[in-house]
Amino acid sequence: MTAPHPTYEQLAELPAYAEQPVPIAFEDANGHLNVRHYTGIASEGLDESLVAQGILQNWPALGHACFSAEHHLTYLAEMRTGDRMSTRVRLLGRSERAAHALVYLLDETHQRLSFVMEEVFLHIDMSTRLTAPWPEEVAAALDARIADDAGLPWEPDVSGSMALR
C-alpha cells in the first residue's frame, strides 16, 4: 500500500520551480490543461531543481545528459487556462547510474495538488549515448539532497511500480 499524497500545505514548503500560469495554447478541447503538458511542465521543474546538484541546463554540451527511463503519472485535479501552477520535487534515491524522484504539480490558484509524476532518470555519457556512473561531484550533491528530502515529515507516495536497479 502506498502512502497518501502529501497535502498542498506540505508541498508548498518545498522550493517552487517552473512557476507559470496555464497558457491558452496548452488547453485542450475539454477546456483544461492537455495531458501532454502536465508531464512537460513537471519535467521542466525537475530539470530546474537539479541545477543545484550540478546537472546544468547545458550539461549535454559538457558531455553529460539525463534521459528518462520510467514514469508513473497520477492526475488528481484539472488545471484550467490562467490557473497559476508550480512544480515541487522530492528526490528519493540514486544508484550508480540512475535516480528516482517524485515531481508534484501544484494548482496555486485553488491551493491543491493537481498531478504527481514519479520518474527514474539515467545519467548518460553523451560521447557514447550510454548510461554511465554519475560524476563524483554530482553523486555527492544528489546524495546530500536525497538525505535532506528523506527528512521531510511525510512519507513519499511512490506508486510501487518502479524502483532503482
Give a written overview of the molecule:
With 165 residues, the protein is α+β, with helices and mostly antiparallel strands. The protein is built from three helices and six strands, in the order αβαβββββα. The chain has a single domain (8-150), classed as Hotdog Thioesterase (Thiol Ester Dehydrase, Chain A). Strands 1, 2, 3, 4, 5 and 6 form a six-stranded antiparallel sheet that branches. A hairpin with a 3-residue loop joins β3 (84-94) and β4. It is globular and about 45 Å long. The mean pLDDT is 96.
Q: Biggest β-sheet: count, sense, barrel?
A: 6 strands, antiparallel
Please tell me the overall pLDDT.
96
Query: Please, what is the CATH homologous superfamily?
Result: Hotdog Thioesterase
Low-pLDDT runs of 5+ residues are none
Number of domains: 1
The fraction of residues in strands falls at 25-35%
Beta-strand segment tally: 6
Distance between the termini: 21 Å
> What's the architecture, going by CATH?
Roll
Strand/helix succession:
HEHEEEEEH
Q: What is the CA-based Rg, rounded?
A: 16 Å
| Highest CATH level, the class | Alpha Beta
Helical residues, percent: 10-25%
Overall, the morphology is globular
Number of helices: 3
Q: Strand pairing plus helix content: what structural class?
A: alpha+beta
- If you consult CATH, what is the topology? Thiol Ester Dehydrase, Chain A
Protein name: Thioesterase
Organism: Nocardioides euryhalodurans
Pfam family, one: 4HBT_2
Key attributes of the depicted protein:
165 residues; alpha+beta; Thiol Ester Dehydrase, Chain A; six-stranded antiparallel sheet; 3 helices; 6 strands; globular; HotDog_dom_sf; Thioesterase
